[in-house]
Amino acid sequence: MMTISSDISHIPVIDFSLFHTDIHACAKQILDAAENVGFFYLRNFGLNRNEVQDMFALSKEFFAQPKEEKHVYAITKDNIGYSSVRQEAVDPQHYAQGDYKESFHIAKFKQNEPGQDLPPVFDTARIKVDHFVKTCHTIVSQIMECLAIALEIPESEGGRAWFSSRHKYEMPSNDVLRLLHYPPLEHASETDDIRIGRHSDYGSLTLLFQNGVAGLQIQANRDDDKEIRWLDAPVLEDCLTVNLGDCLEYWTNGLLRSTKHRVVFTPETQMQPRYSMAYFCQGGQAVLEPVPSRFITKSANEEKERAKDEAATPPLTAAKHLEMRLNATYSAY
């Protein structure tokens, strides 16, 4: 394993075809990125350019509808449906006015049927959407297998399936494919414009598809007490952006990195619309307990304190963590 660095200087690019040709080399690269950066790009990840662009076309068609038609599918307590501009505030402490974007959250399909009422624009594309969502989940499962291999989780404890077995597609969870639209500003500004405030992702893994207009920045330094430095995450052609969420950081006692990030438009891009898609993988009722790996260090005192905490309160699950974070996100609306 590599020595963990405190600051981030670049985002690595990984050829994911290695998963099928040399999984141990693939696992090492992914673990190094997960430890040191918390973000990485994937090439050759299992969806072709046309499949991705077809989903972007559907997204644009949905967001082009009148507001009243989109609000028919307003977001529910299960975090599926339409969320309007400034309805969410992922960083309410510093950006209480809300995030300047709108989104539509698509739940996992069940037996090839949507897990929610979908707008008419999706009527003729349900097979495409189902395939896209399932393929995203497959990619997530493969990344998790790589992490388990690199962490050398014993077979007796679950081995390479330790993470993926807690994220099976058919298990109840709040996985969503999130279509995102950042409208252009009505009036240009001479300063950078924050579209989504600084935050970490709530779940286990996120797959991000970017389309043309950049804007994602990741926090380059871990120490929040110092002046925050930002690193641009440019759009790389035919690449998928992957980042780790809070649950993987919890499971590994902070070894893996749930890096904070934001979306910022520069004066050059403020007048352009931006579209992206994110697949958020959640752990459902999986308990956020330490991974059985020799790389996850726990002192005797930590073990004793954790045992006392567990005796006093129910263990924290991925679903409970998600609920708490979502409540904070929508509290001002």
Question: What is this structure's SSE topology?
Answer:
Layout: E1 13-15, H1 18-21, H2 23-36, E2 39-43, H3 49-63, H4 67-71, E3 81-83, E4 102-107, H5 126-150, E5 176-182, E6 193-199, E7 205-210, E8 216-219, E9 230-232, E10 239-244, H6 246-251, E11 261-265, E12 274-281, H7 300-312, H8 318-330
Parallel strand pairs: 1-2
Antiparallel strand pairs: 2-10, 3-4, 4-5, 5-12, 6-11, 7-10, 7-12, 8-9, 8-11
Pfam families: 2OG-FeII_Oxy, DIOX_N
Keywords: Iron, Metal-binding, Oxidoreductase
GO molecular function: metal ion binding; oxidoreductase activity
Which stretches are low in confidence, meaning pLDDT under 50 for 5 or more residues running? none
The end-to-end distance, rounded to whole angstroms, is: 44 Å
Question: Beta-strand level of the residues, as a percent range?
Answer: 15-25%
State the fourth-level CATH superfamily: B-lactam Antibiotic, Isopenicillin N Synthase, Chain
| Sheet/helix structural class | alpha+beta
What does this protein look like?
The chain is of the alpha+beta class. It has one domain: B-lactam Antibiotic, Isopenicillin N Synthase, Chain (Jelly Rolls), CATH 2.60.120. It starts with 12 loop residues before the first strand and ends with a helix. GO terms for molecular function: metal ion binding; oxidoreductase activity. Belongs to the iron/ascorbate-dependent oxidoreductase family. InterPro entries: DIOX_N, IPNS-like_FE2OG_OXY, IPNS-like_sf, Iron_ascorbate_oxido_reductase, Oxoglu/Fe-dep_dioxygenase_dom.
